[in-house]
Amino acid sequence: MANVHDRLEPPERLVRTLSSGPAYGEAAQQWLARLPITVQEYLERWELTPERVRTPGGRTSLVVLVRRSDGTPAALKLGLPDGTPVREHAALVHWDGRHAVQVLDADPAAGALLLERLHGEVSLRSLAEPKAQLEAAATLQRLWVPPPADHPFPSVAEHTAALAGGLRELCEEPWAVVDEALELREALAAGETGEEPVLLHGEFEQGSVLAGERAPWLAIAPRPLVGERAYDVAWLVRDRLDTLLASPGAAAIARRRVAKLADSLDVDGERLRGWALFRATVAGVHEAAAGRRRQGELLLEFAGLL
User: Which GO terms describe its biological process (predicted)?
Assistant: First the structure.
């Protein structure tokens, strides 16, 4: 039994994130300490047999590969019960397996989701970059549907206002791009897009699309919002960041990527550039503040190129 308990221990990445990030406090520590017990409770409740914990895993959730009572493979995901799993569950239920992972069972208020098993080791990043971007764009476009009535999802304007608040205070160095990012957000949030708001994935990148059995590619781990499509495309602009920044003419490559994505997904190129710059800046400042300085500097350098 001790061996089973050991297999349910949180991976190092999750422990490190919740221990160092400025956004996490005592409640997160208590959730983390109790996590092996929580996993065992859901294994028993849903009659699951554990195989192993996915590593390195996410920064705020634990995924255990399991078998259901009939032998069907599945994935038990436990996230911080901070409202994020409730919104993730609502989006996945609304998509109902269309181009996204299927929900098999759930206790969203407690942060527990039982999901269909995908090939976690095979994401779009396993493809050559041009092919990966084509597949990513096709998947993302199909997720853009009208949100359900009385949905729990924040708007892009609300979400980015919260991100912008206190950004300068988090920034330990006087990065000029921070001022530009905040000014751009104000203009983008206030501007008219001329399009109907749609359900957005919220954290869409090549790594959040995995190979499946019932469909070639399925999206996972949404942080859903409602708003304009250009916001959802922004993370694709900075995909494979290390390779992009190491390439000669990185700024020109970044601008071409913005133009190609804007054209293929029919979004406004300037709005896409603005959201990509804002999101990269926010992510860079938060990474640096959490002690992941190198990644933070890379993101801020990338934002400067835009």
Answer: secondary metabolic process
Contact 79, 14 (CB under 8 A): no
Q: Which of 9, 54, 67 is nearest to 36 (CA)?
A: 9
User: H or E segment at 227?
Assistant: strand 225-227
Q: Where are the alpha helices (DSSP H) in the chain?
A: 2-7, 12-20, 26-45, 84-95, 129-143, 156-164, 167-170, 176-190, 229-237, 241-246, 250-265, 269-289, 293-305
> How many degrees, rounded to 5, is the angle at CA 163 between CA 296 and CA 129?
50
Summary mean pLDDT of the chain? 93
Contacts 24+ apart (CB under 8 A), 134-137: 134/264, 135/209, 135/216, 135/217, 136/204, 136/205, 136/206, 136/209, 136/236, 136/239, 137/236, 137/261, 137/264, 137/265
Kindly report, residue by residue over 184-209, the tens digit of the pLDDT.
999 999 988 889 999 999 999 999 99
Question: Which residues, at least 6 apart from 83, have a Cβ–Cβ distance to it below 8 Å?
Answer: 152
| Stated pTM of the model | 0.93
List the one residue out of 264, 204, 208 whose CA is nearest residue 234.
204
Buried b (16+ CB within 10 A) or exposed e, 67-78: ebeeeeebbbbb
pLDDT of residue 8: 83
Q: Phi and psi (nearest 5°) for 161? A: -65, -40
Q: Show the domains of the chain with their CATH numbers.
A: 2-116 (3.30.200.20), 124-305 (3.90.1200.10)
Is residue 195 helix, strand or coil?
Answer: coil
Residues of the chain with pLDDT under 70: 1-7, 20-23
Contact predicate 163/171, CB 8 Å: no
The pLDDT value recorded for residue 3 is 47
